[in-house]
Write a structure and sequence with these properties.
Structural class: alpha+beta
Helix content: 55-70%
Radius of gyration: 32 Å
Number of helices: 21
Largest sheet: 4 strands, antiparallel
Number of strands: 14
Shape: flat
C-alpha cells in the first residue's frame, strides 16, 4: 500500500540530503567559470597599454573566448559531475539494508526514482546556471556588452545541462545493472570504451592478417564511434564532430540534429533505467550483477576480445602462432577466474564454471585462427570478370588528395572512386597477380617469384552494385605497364593528378625538395648537366641550394611553379613517378594547414630549371 506523500516534498528532502553536493558543485564550477573569467580579464587589462577603444575591443575578445561554446574543460567536469551525482543519489542500491529501508516506505518505486533523480540533478543545475550567469556578469566591470552574447551563453548552458544528463543517464543504467560499486565503475567504463576498443581490435586484426584490406585508414572516419556511448557523443558534439551550425560570438553553434540525438539518448537511458529499476530484485543488492542471467553473456563479451588481444600481443612479441595460442589460453582462463571471483567474491568458486571458461577460450582461438589463416578466403577473393562493371587502380604511394565539396580529401577509397574505368582488362590482370602473390606469400614479404613488388590499391565495382576495395602486392613491371596504359587516357591522368585542374588562387604557399646529389640537374639553357663525381655535385648542390629545399611564397612564384609542374606532369611516365628524387608540396587551405605532396624526378625539366632560378634569386638576396 502506498501513501500520497507529496512528490515535491520528496524532491526537497533529497535536495536537503545532498546539500553538501550542491556546495561542492558551486565551488567547482564557480572556480571553473566566473573565477577563471575574472582572472583572465584582469590579466588582459593589466597587460594592455594601447588606446581605450582598443582596450575595450581586446577585453571583449578575451571575454567571449572564456565563456559559451567549445570549452572542453567545462565538458570534462560536467561529465564527471553527472557520473558522481548518479552514484551518490542511487548508491543505496548497493546496500541491502538501505534498499530494504527505501523500499519499505509507502512510496511507489517510480515516485522514489523520479524524486531522487530530480533532486540530485538540481544539485548540479542550480550552481551551474548561477556560475554561468556570474561568468556573464564578470564582463560588465570591463566594459563588455554582455547582452550581445547572453542568448548564446544561455544556449551553451542548456548544452552543458544536456551533457550532464547524458553522463548521469549512462551511469544510472550501469547502477541499475549492477549490485556493487566496484562492478558499477567497471560497467560504466565498459559502456564508455567497449565499442571503440572492439573496433580497434578488429582494425588491428585486419591490418595484420587481412592485409589486402583498405579498412584501416577508415578508422578515423568511423562516425559510429561517436555514438557508441553517452560520454562519446557529448565529447563529439563539443569537438564539432556531429556537425556545426552558424558562427557565434563565443564559437560555433552545435548542429540541431546532434543535439536532438543526445536528447533522445538521454530519454532512452532514463526510461530504460526506470524499467530495470521496477524489475530489479531487492535481494540482488550486494551482488556483482543485478540479474543473474546476464553473468555469462557479460563474461563472454569481456573475455573473448581480451583473450584475442592477448594472443595478438604474444604473436607480435614472439612472432609465433604457438605463443599466440599459449597467451590466449592462459589469459582467457585467468580472466574467467578473475571475473568469477568478482561475481562470487570467493576464491574457492573461481573454477565453478569450467564449461564457460572452455567456451570462451575456444571462441578466442577460433577468431584468432580465422583471421590468421584467412579461413574466409578474404585475401584471395577475386570476382569473375563477367561480374564486374568497372575497376580502378592506383599506386598507394601516389594516392594524392583532391578537393571534394570544398574539403580536401586523401581517403584512398574515394580516390579510387575517381579513377573508375570500364576498360579494365589490364587492371584485372594486375588483380590476378596480387591474389597469386597473396596466396603464395601469405602476405608476409614484398618479394615474390624473384620479382620486386609494389603496393597497389584496386577497386571492383560489380554489376550488382557491390563495391570491393583491396590492397595488393603486385609486380612492379606489371603495375608500371598498367598505369602507363591508363595515363594514355587524358581524363584519367587529370583525375590522378588533381593539381592539373587546380585553381592557382586556392594555393597559398608552395615548397619543393629535391635531391640533386644523385646525378642530374637542369641548367638555364634547358640541357642536363651530368656530374661524374656525384659526391662533388652533392656538396655543390648542398652549398648552393640551401640543403635542396626551396620556398615559393609570392603569387607570381606559385603560379610559375604550378605552370612548370603541369607541363612536366603532362609528359612523364608512371615509372618516372616511381623513382623520384623529391617532391613538390602545395598548401591548399592555410587556415586548416592542409597540404598535398606530388612527385618530382629528373624528368621534370621545367620545374627543376625554375628551381635553380629560385635558388639563385635567394642566394643573391642574401
Amino acid at each position: 500500500m502506498t501513501s500520497k506523500i507529496s512528490f515535491f516534498k520528496l524532491v526537497r528532502d533529497e535536495q536537503k540530503k545532498l546539500t553538501w553536493m550542491t556546495a561542492l558543485m558551486g565551488l567547482v564550477f564557480g572556480l571553473l567559470i566566473p573565477f577563471r573569467v575574472l582572472v583572465v580579464m584582469a590579466l588582459n587589462n593589466s597587460q594592455y597599454t594601447g588606446a581605450e577603444s582598443g582596450r575595450i575591443g581586446s577585453l571583449t575578445g578575451a571575454f567571449w573566448n572564456q565563456i559559451g561554446f567549445g570549452h572542453f574543460e567545462n565538458t570534462f567536469f560536467i561529465l564527471c559531475a553527472g557520473a558522481f551525482c548518479a552514484l551518490c543519489a542511487f548508491g543505496y542500491l548497493h546496500s541491502p539494508v538501505k534498499l530494504d529501508f527505501f523500499h519499505s516506505l509507502a512510496v511507489k518505486r517510480e515516485t522514489l526514482f523520479g524524486a531522487k533523480a530530480i533532486g540530485s540533478i538540481l544539485t548540479f543545475v542550480i550552481p551551474y546556471v548561477i556560475s554561468q550567469l556570474l561568468g556573464l556578469l564578470a564582463g560588465l566591470p570591463y566594459g563588455v556588452d554582455v547582452k550581445t552574447g547572453a542568448a548564446e551563453v544561455l544556449a551553451a548552458s542548456g548544452q552543458g545541462i544536456l551533457f550532464f544528463l547524458a553522463s548521469y543517464g549512462g551511469t544510472l543504467l550501469a547502477l541499475m545493472l549492477t549490485g556493487k560499486i566496484l562492478t558499477t565503475v567497471f560497467a560504466a567504463g565498459v559502456m564508455a570504451g567497449y565499442i571503440p576498443l572492439l573496433y580497434l581490435l578488429i582494425i588491428v586484426m585486419q591490418e595484420l592478417f587481412l592485409y589486402t584490406s583498405l579498412s584501416g585508414e577508415d578508422m578515423i572516419e568511423a562516425g559510429i564511434l561517436w555514438y557508441s556511448s553517452p560520454w562519446a557523443i557529448c565529447i563529439a558534439q563539443n569537438m564539432g564532430k556531429l556537425g556545426t551550425g552558424k558562427e557565434g560570438i563565443t564559437g560555433l553553434w552545435p548542429e540541431q540534429s546532434g543535439t536532438c540525438t543526445i536528447l533522445l539518448m538521454v530519454i532512452c537511458l532514463f526510461l530504460l533505467s526506470l524499467l530495470i529499476y521496477r524489475r530489479r530484485k531487492t535481494e540482488r543488492a550486494g551482488s556483482a550483477l543485478a540479474f543473474r542471467h546476464t553473468e555469462m553473456p557479460v563474461k563472454m563479451a569481456l573475455v573473448i576480445p581480451s583473450a584475442v588481444t592477448a594472443g595478438l600481443v604474444g604473436y607480435e612479441i614472439f612472432m609465433s602462432v604457438i605463443w599466440a595460442f599459449i597467451f590466449i589460453i592462459l589469459f582467457g582462463a585467468l580472466l574467467c577466474m578473475i571475473i568469477e571471483f568478482i561475481y562470487r567474491w570467493d576464491i574457492r568458486q573461481v573454477l565453478v564454471h569450467k564449461g564457460q571458461m572452455m567456451t570462451a577460450v575456444l571462441a578466442a582461438l577460433l577468431i584468432f585462427c580465422g583471421f590468421r589463416y584467412d579461413l574466409s578466403g578474404y585475401n584471395t577473393y577475386l570476382p569473375e570478370k563477367d561480374e564486374i562493371a568497372s575497376m580502378a587502380v592506383c599506386d598507394l604511394d601516389l594516392a594524392v588528395g583532391y578537393l571534394e565539396e570544398e574539403t580536401w580529401n586523401t581517403n584512398t577509397r574515394r580516390f579510387l572512386d575517381r579513377l573508375e574505368t570500364d576498360q579494365f582488362d589490364r587492371i584485372y590482370e594486375l588483380a590476378e597477380n596480387g591474389v597469386e602473390n597473396a596466396a603464395a606469400t601469405n602476405g608476409f614479404g614484398a618479394y615474390t617469384y624473384d620479382e620486386y613488388c609494389w603496393y597497389a590499391g584496386v577497386k571492383f565495382h560489380l554489376k550488382n552494385g557491390k563495391e570491393i576495395y583491396r590492397r595488393y602486392y603486385v609486380k612492379e613491371e606489371l603495375l608500371s605497364e598498367c598505369m602507363d596504359e591508363m595515363w594514355e587516357n587524358e581524363e584519367l591522368r587529370r583525375r590522378t593528378f588533381p593539381i592539373l585542374d587546380m585553381d592557382p588562387e586556392k594555393i597559398s604557399y608552395a615548397c619543393m625538395y629535391y635531391n640533386f646529389g644523385y646525378g642530374m640537374a637542369e641548367t638555364d639553357s634547358g640541357e642536363s648537366d651530368t656530374w661524374e663525381d656525384e659526391e662533388a655535385y652533392a656538396e655543390y648542390a648542398t652549398e648552393t641550394y640551401e640543403n635542396n629545399y626551396f620556398e615559393f611564397t609570392t603569387r607570381s612564384e606559385i603560379v610559375s611553379l604550378l605552370e612548370a609542374y603541369r607541363e612536366d606532369l603532362a609528359q612523364v611516365t608512371y615509372q618516372d613517378c616511381m623513382y623520384r628524387g623529391g617532391s613538390v608540396q602545395f598548401q591548399i587551405d592555410e587556415k586548416n594547414d592542409c597540404w598535398v605532396s606530388y612527385p618530382l624526378g629528373d624528368k621534370w625539366t621545367k620545374t627543376l630549371a625554375l628551381c635553380r632560378k629560385q635558388a639563385e634569386k635567394y642566394q643573391i638576396t642574401e
